[in-house]
Amino acid sequence: MQRLSIGDFSRITHLSIKTLRRYHEAGLLKPAEVDDRTGYRYYRTAQVPTAQVIRRFRELGMPVREVAEVLGTADPAARNALIADHLDRLERQLEQTRAAVSSLRRLLDPSPAGFDVELRLAPAITAVAITETVDLQDVLNWYSDAMVDLDAVLASLGKSPTGPPGGLYANALFSEERGEATVYLPLADPPRTGRVAPLVIPPTELAVTVHHGAHSDIDVTYGQLGSYVAEHAMTIAEPVRETYLLGPRDTPDEGRWRTEIGWPVFAVSAG
Predict the structure, then answer these.
(1) What's the pLDDT band for 260 if we cut at 50, 70, 90?
(2) Is 204 in contact with 178 (CB distance < 8 Å)?
(3) Within the chain, which residue ranges are assigned CATH 1.10.1660.10?
């Protein structure tokens, strides 16, 4: 089998000499032999496919440690599981990148289309709800679990909600990354069981707008609404209210989602 100098191996694999040395030091791709006297590294042509696999994994952002783990795993199922975990992580990162790009495009638009604010006195709502203190990073998973519990309670009673689901979110959830969150379903005669409890939301003056589409850039709509409230010198009260007019419970098509955001205000006048 042909012996290759590190320079020849570099040209064949498109891995730089510096990279090959680093992979050797990390135990990722060891030369077939190293000259004891000169320290020169030599490779074999049989190592070319391995080098190409490493190059592909590194292009996908897989850490050297994980590449070594994949190459050192003899069991195909275990090896495929390691690769699948990394691909799942890449897909999540891609979703985050797309969401950031979408938000930036909206922020760069000097005249956002479809942004309207309505000043409204929202009537009282009687609902069945779950209220807990949560971390901001966990709020989406918490919301999903809470909705499952609320749906289960209503199903056990054979009842349907009298309006769309909603949520109340305290300022501390955003300013301190931990705060009180409430998710609710309107219901005329709400029960109490486990962490599920009755809730009465009093009549509230709100500045209201509707966020269109996925929630990945809902912060931009929050920014627009909050700026409107601040510029019109309205006293802001908490908590902010969200009403899910159309969401993932209704359709997987994110483009159709509609989330109403209600920002509590005082002294709303007709002017």
Answers:
(1) very high
(2) no
(3) 3-72
